[in-house]
Structure formats: structure tokens, C-alpha cells
Hints:
The chain has helices at residues 57-74, 87-94, 103-113, 130-141, 173-185, and strands at residues 13-21, 30-37, 43-51, 80-84, 119-123, 148-151. By secondary structure, it is α/β, with parallel strands linked by helices. It has a single domain, classed as Nucleotidyltransferase, domain 5. The protein has a 6-stranded mixed beta sheet with strand order 5-4-1-2-3-6, sandwiched between helices. The longest helix has 18 residues, at 57-74. The chain is globular. Residues 25-138 form the RNase H type-1 domain. It holds the Pfam family RVT_3.
Amino acid sequence: MDQISYIPKSTTLTTYTHSFMVGNIQDGRGGGGWVLRNERGVVILHSRRAFSGLFNKDEANFEILKWVVESMRSHRISNVIISGDLEAMFGAISRPDAWPSFLFYVGEIERELVGTSGIIFQKVSREENRGAMLIAQSVTRKGLTQSYVSRGHPNWFCNGARHHDPLYGIWSFRQFATALLCVVLGL
């Protein structure tokens, strides 16, 4: 089976990923989110997943990055820039000798990268990563623990659709109508 039909093979895509660990480490819950956009900034896919049994922020970042790579592989998406505010994890992948405490994590990520092509990791600020951050935070702050993958921007994030946001990129008529409906209904 080839790459998803609505994603051109020649396109370089960007996946913004974010991990969010709930404030209470003893609880061990966290959320992850990613947003896949094309070169024009249009959201193609987005996803959310809840995680449990996490011991610390590094483990949360590892589990979420591993999930993002698995997602790109399972959707047959290549030539993708995986970006996020995961500086330590990305640093360990690019320079494993400088991060000896992350060797296990790096080995696991490299194992997930087998069978993929053109994946690049890039550090970006939280502001550039806002869409994925809000999706990840929805797990712990809003209790939205249902994991999913969906086309386009998150429909549940109605309030954010009132203003042009990098998460949404260029609005389609449906996105504009959804935002307008949210304003009219006061959602």
C-alpha cells in the first residue's frame, strides 16, 4: 500500500509534536499530540493519545516521540520534519555520545525509524508548537483521554478557531463555517 492518497509524495511535511505531563508526577498520566501540516501550513492530520505509568518528563517525552515516529511509519508518511520542544530528546538522537543517560531511548527511537525515510528532528519553541501543545494538554486539563487520529484540524477545539492560528493554516470553507458557527453559538 502506498502513502495516504491525499498527501502528495513529493511534499515535505512537518509534524509538530508535544508532550504534556500532568503536574502530579505520582499520578503518572500525560498526554501527547501531533499535527501534520504541509509546506503551506495546511493541517492534513492531527492526533492525540493519553499515556499512563509515566515516571518523569524524560520518559513522557520518549514515549510520545516514539508514538509520533510509529504514527508516521504506520501512515506511510516520509520526508517529514518532526519538530517540537523536546530539546534533550532531539539532542540525544543527533549526538548520542553527549547524552549517555539517553542511550536506551535513542536505541528505541532508532528501532522505530527502521523502514522510514526522510525523517528529520527539529527543535521549535512552544509558541511554534501551540496546536500540538493544546491537543496534548486536552488529555490532562480537560480529561479528553480518547486517543484518535483525524484529518484536518481538531473540531473539538472550537474556541481556538475564532482567530487565525498556525494550527489551522489556510482555512477551508468548512473550517471557516465551523469557526463562524462557534462564534454565533457562543461556544
